[in-house]
Specification:
Rna Polymerase Sigma Factor, Chain: A, Arc Repressor Mutant, subunit A, 2 domains, 0% strand, 8 helices, globular, mainly alpha
């Protein structure tokens, strides 16, 4: 792992006293981690705080760090634990029927489409993106975490298992259930989404 992962080498350089290596790690992974955490906790400000806390913990681990996994896997495990702790706070709790024993939903921000020659095509893309976001909002957090880390971050199931502190078999089950749930919800949104806006095709 020490030789295979350049981020591990950066972390080891930081452990050896190179503070610029820590800055490089933050620059490389701060934004991807922010996107992931915002997807999970549903609030940009909270996600930013969690990113700061995650890197603070990375900094504090300077004297005891061991390259047992890819740096990104280790970092996302820290971030995931912080997100789950945040979601368990009483002020954030909301009723949610979850097979994964985690019940909050994120709220992804929607973005306006810029005008231009391809505005209709962009609008269609935005509509599809909104449907995916709406579907993601309605699945349990651990399923969302598993499918995000595997599909968006490109982690292997083994790496996702480390990040979520579970087994590879459990990750496969989470991803499978997430895909089934998303397909079901996307189908429902596809059937009801246009009518739900109050518009009509006729």
């Amino acid at each position: 792992m020490r030789d295979a992962d350049p981020d591990v080498q950066q972390m080891l350089a930081f452990c050896a006293g190179d503070d610029s290596a820590f800055a490089s790690l933050f620059e490389r992974w701060g934004r991807p981690l922010l996107h992931y955490l915002q997807r999970i906790v549903g609030d940009a400000a909270t996600a930013e705080e969690l990113v700061q806390e995650a890197f603070l913990r990375v900094h504090r681990a300077r004297d005891r760090y061991r390259p047992d996994a890819k740096f990104s896997t280790w970092l996302y495990r820290i971030g995931t634990n912080l997100a789950l702790n945040e979601l368990r706070r009483p002020r954030r709790s909301r009723p949610h029927d979850s097979a994964d024993e985690v019940g909050d939903e994120d709220r992804a921000p929607l973005h306006l489409v810029a005008s231009g020659p391809a505005a209709d095509r962009q609008l269609d893309v935005r509509r599809r993106t909104s449907r995916v976001e709406a579907a993601l909002e309605d699945i349990p957090e651990r399923q969302r975490m598993a499918i995000w880390l595997s599909a968006v971050e490109g982690m292997s199931y083994a790496e996702v298992a480390v990040a979520l502190e579970t087994t590879e078999k459990s990750v496969k089950s989470l991803v499978h259930r997430a895909r089934v749930a998303l397909a079901d919800r996307m189908a429902k949104v596809g059937e009801d989404g246009i009518a739900g806006t109050g518009g009509s095709a006729n």
